[in-house]
Sequence to fold (678 residues):
Amino acid sequence: MQQTLFDKIWDFHRVAQRADGRDLIYIDRHVLHELHAHHAFAQLQKQNRPVRRADLTFAVQDHTVAIKPGRDDDTNPSGSAFIRAMREGCRTNGIRLFDVDDPEQGISHVVAPELGIVLPGATHAVPDSHASTVGGIGALAFGCGTSELAHILATQVMALKRPKNMRVQLDGRLAGGVSAKDVALRIIAEIGVAGARGHVVEYAGAAVRAMPIEQRMTLSNLNIEMGGRSGFVAPDDATFEWLARRPFVPQGAEWDRALRHWRMLASDEGVRFDREVSLDCTTLEPQITWGTDPSQVVEISGRVPDPAALDPARRAAAASAFGYMDLAPGTPLLGLPIDRVFIGSCTNSRLPDLQVAADIVRGRHVAEGVAAMVVPGSSSVKRQAEAAGLDRVFREAGFFWGESGCSMCAGGNGDRGQPGERCVSTTNRNFENRQGPKVRTHLASPATAAASAIAGRIADARQLAPGAA
Amino acid sequence: MMQPFTRHTGIAAPLIKDNINTDQIAPILHSRGLKEDYRAMLFHRARRREDGSDDPDFVLNKPQFRATGILVTGENFGAGSSRESAVWSMLANGIRVIVAKSFADIYRENCLQNGLLPVVLGSALGDQFIARVVAADGKALFTVDLVTQRIGGPGGPDIAFEIPAADRTRLIEGLDDIGLTLKHVDEIANWEARAQVAQPWLQSARDSR
Fold:
């Protein structure tokens, strides 16, 4: 019988069916972060249950860490207890921790692939809804809650109901200045914030094949914003090339053997998906959110929609977003004055994201009155960016250049905007109050964020006059 | 830990919006410590006015809904983050049942882990129930019975609801999820042994440096 790649990975990892009908799916790599792990450590200790496979478990400090240069455990006082509990829990349980001062600290979804901890065809779990970022290298990842996190620590399996199969077919070729972020926002706009609920999504098609691995990760990262259970891109030569020689991947003869296996990781020709969606990317413009959920998206040259033109099911949400965002229907997005720009998060903080942004700001300056910051996705990304001189480009342009962490994406480390500020952000959620009370977030690509910082208004990076660069 | 759920009789409060997300339900509050106040966390911003005082217009602040046990809402409840505090904050406020037109996947899983009953009433049935809850206005109680899979209360006949049998059993018996899985510990060990042969790179994650 023909199978999707998801079916193949699921079936291989299916350990047993539990009495309640759930499949026990083996988790090859489990990565924890400090915001949720302490609850699980405490629960296991109380129940006197050991961690089954500490050797397949990793931990990072990312959600609550300060990003100020010279930071320590207490730079963000509301993070100290989490950071210390994480350190203690990892020490007690023998789990490798990428601590605050570790040269490889960073956002879990950035660190795990960049070190080769996750692999194509492997299952992965993180107590975070953006776990599927690593789908960009062909891993099957599940976000989970805290109880599930404790369950995985104790058993190394997740008890799951089998999701359905969905394919998002991305045809054509992206125009210059258009990225995976724009593609993902457009898909979410088309199918809505619950459009992939109950499904694992395979992203396929020529536009995906042409994407560098980092962009495939951006695409997979935003899968949860349309409610998907997981999302991935089948691996190909670009994936294997990207992974080769990373420290935690198999080495030597074992790499060769793994590679032979990974080359077979694909959905069978002609296999049926429960749901199919397609998008021709050729004419796609840069996209930006105007509202308070990630499906409220227009192209950058577009206007805040007229509720009468919307699907009736989306009108109520739009009506409440107008007020929060202080935008009237018909207002053009281009030219809206902004107060803040954030470039970072598991969505868009990898080296190529920073390179795109740096190319736009090089030789220019952030507009007066705009607070702009860049927060690399990992300490390794930060070092590589600095080696390429990007930190200087950003700093000379008036950006704040931070240490790595989740920072202003969810504000778990205290980084946030001021009430009423309008912020262009490369993150994943424009929910009310997420980036600070009453902060108005517009999600966009690194190019759009960088161009907007320079213009002091929402700007189309393709229209910036040629700069000093 | 899981508290069993069989039946709950209580006040039902209407919070009729779609896509209520975890940042709304349980925002990150920057408390300095691991012991968070889940009771205060629930709908922390929506409950309060700018000066920090309670907003009397928010449904759970209204006198008749102060002791709500059943929250009634729209589509895709619990979208967003995987944070389980979005469930713990419900329980800390005495809410044992959420009746929604649909739930976000991770949120629903987190409900099941904690004995918070997620009831899905499809669009038409959901609208009928919402109308009855609005009409009752907290003055008459509703009963959600997981054993008989029925909701009873003022304004009409009992409403039958569907829930997967396995989820129902787990809630009624308050089963220890880890214990349930550990009955398969031999199969887990066998899988590891098979994977060690078939795809050995999955069974080790070593730094080659």
Notes: The radius of gyration of chain A is 21 Å.
